[in-house]
Amino acid sequence: MKKEDLRIVFMGTPEFAVESLKTLVENGYNVVGVITMPDKPAGRGYKLQPSPVKQYALEKDLHLLQPEKLKDEVFLSELRKLKADVQVVVAFRMLPEVVWSMPGKGTFNLHSSLLPQYRGAAPINWAIINGEKETGVTTFFLSHEIDTGEIIFREKTEISESDNAETLHDRLMVMGAALVKKTIDAILEDNTKVIPQEELVGSEIVLKPAPKIFTETCKIDWNRKSAEIFNFIRGLSPYPAAWTELQRHESDETLRIKLFASEKIALTEDYKINSLTPGTIITDNKTYIDVATGDGLLRITDLQLSGKKRMKSVDFLNGYKLDNKDRFQ
After folding, report:
1. Cβ distance 229 to 220 under 8 Å?
2. Quick check: 251 pLDDT over 90?
């Protein structure tokens, strides 16, 4: 089958998915339909906003469907009319079997981890939070259990200490688009040599999940080790962002602060003698903010006070002078 004849239905919603859709469209593949989430209210005026995938689909005049419910008979009827040979899913939602089993050549998903590790909604964040040195992208055919289907391809990339959730997201987005194209080409050539995920799970391997992240998940525990907090901050940066509470000694007020970047620094002998309580702030009120952790110090370099703009620590200190009894908690 020629690529012009393979009928593809693409399903996705956020920016991460646009790169894959764009790669298919710009390389001449036959995308006969795009499925995305309904418009959602956003911004101060809560006006309905189209998803990034919808915006791109409209720009390219692609056939678009936005079902509220994926088991709705009207939607299923419209989907059948598209006569897809294959469905591609990138950052969409869990599909019912009636949808993923529809195409003759199957439905495959792009996942932003090296499956079977980090099944779930937030694999990019959790890989960094857990201090992984590598991650990647995986394509796999959908099956009944989420993120458990047979693997088609995997592509690896290193995670450096300078990476955060944003830089890794952008790199995996581009890698993923290339892997989607590679997967489509393999399907065209009838050359998909799948691997059951069970074959990659040995008795010594512990599977790490990637559950959805909520606001309460993002609060920093200063009792943890510096390296763990360092990874936690960058794994949530810039969104949804790690946060802490600044307890001000003089005014007895508590301020919520988001932290976007930090640096690991050595603990001097003086601080060891003083046995600092985790959350203790050490600052010259001009150039740096250091915070005691469970095993050392962490230097905060990029933060945002609730209701204010994101800023460097030096700029924060221009407006907020910290007392030596102020602390993060």
Report:
1. yes
2. no
C-alpha to C-alpha distance for 260 and 240, rounded to whole angstroms: 10
In which order are the strands placed within the sheet that holds 86-90? 64-65, 30-35, 7-12, 86-90, 107-111, 134-141, 151-158
**The pair of three-digit structure tokens given for residue 287, joined into one six-digit string:** 């150039």
Write down the pTM of the prediction. Answer: 0.94
Cβ–Cβ under 8 Å, residues 93 and 70: yes
Which is nearest to 110 in space by CA: 4, 182, 55, 166? 182
Read off the pLDDT of residues 74-112 as tens digits, 9 standing for 90 and up: 999 999 999 999 999 999 999 999 999 999 999 999 999
Whether the CB-CB separation of 193 and 150 falls below 8 Å is answered with no
Peptide bond into 240 cis (omega under 30): yes
Taking 80 as the threshold, does the pLDDT of residue 14 lie above it? Answer: yes
177 three-state secondary structure: helix
What is the rounded (10 degree) CA torsion for 143, 148, 149, 154?
150
